[in-house]
Amino acid sequence: MGYKKNHIDIISMGCSKNLIDSERLIRRLEAKGYTVAHNPETPRGEYVMVNTCGFIGDAKEESVNMLLELAELRERGDIGRIAAMGCLTERYRGELSDEMPEIDMIYGKFDWDAFARDLPDLKAASRPAEWERTLTTPPHSAYIKISEGCNRFCAFCAIPLITGRHRSRPEEEILAEARQLVAGGVRELNVIAQDLSSYGLDLYGEHRLARLVDRMADIEGVEWIRLHYAYPADFPMDVLDVMARRPNVCKYLDIALQHISDSQLARMRRHIDREGTLRLLDEIRRRVPGIKLRTTLMVGFPGETDEDFDQLLDFVRRVRFDRMGAFAYSEEEDTYAALNYADDVPPQTKQARLDRLMEVQQEISEELNAAMVGREVRLIVDEYEGDTAICRSQWDSPEVDLTYRVEGCDAPEGAMIDAVITEAMPFDFIAEMKKEETGSL
Hints:
This protein is α/β, with parallel strands linked by helices. Helix content is about 35%, strand content about 25%.
């Protein structure tokens, strides 16, 4: 079939932080005159760029497999040159150059802009501003990254090895980007970072997340601000006051806890213990009534005993997280755990524990969801499937949380609607438009 001349496909792997880098690259390529497609079903570009993930073993394998699949397409003449950027290439650039000759052009996580500079200009254009990007999300919703890197150095995590030390973006720069996004039609800002809790410490010598969010909430046109990837140790408690006070700051917090056993938390180097975690969660719920919490937990970390795992199960039953994800530990080279601990929990035990943990959470989720039936909710319309509006609430982040299916809705995408939940499903809700009350004459 042949590839499309002057056409570039961008394939984003991994997290929303990667997605922002892809969006910035797309904007630069479009400014040079190229036609760009994001995550096409069938790549046909003269260039195909893979923005790789290198967080855990499964994600690395997925990125490598994608590059190998593209190599087969190139053999058939369906695509032109293959490029790679992102976390995997940042960490393994030398190895990939030696072991994967299929990749024509390799960039890291922070020099991806060189890909755009390396391509010839197809038209005369000014260079886009530093954080200018082409959104690949629905036009009413966007991610906004407020910092890069991490100083926590948890025993299992390779992120600091890839991204380096924590670096906050200047407050005014973030607010300028937020205003630009809102001026372009964005109504929902999903605030992300490797570690939200540390925002501002490096630049200003103090926590600045609360102040940043408070000022962001002042921007006219912002309906929702949602916070993702907070760290429990040294959590900036003043952000809870902003969340409780400002109606356009979602009553939602994504805070990865990983475990609850004191021995596991210490071995993981999480800088917090069981009692500190429980106090934090109680305080969050006390100061922000109605908040919904999302967390991520890990099973099978080196040294995890049956007793440790039972504590984790009891913790999940006690706290009753509204949203929860979990994964089994995989050893990442050069991390503290890989250098100091034996990976001593058998794979079958890891999988059995993961399955059991998710079974418990599913039971909790079903109970919490059932309790929502009959409740009125404010929703944003993301898209339509036929005549059914696919929506989300303030408690549901794009891609990872629940959706609401609303029949008989004719509001445009991006509109805010009021609906009543009529049925709870395992992974979504059925809702109907709220009936307008009319008075009699």
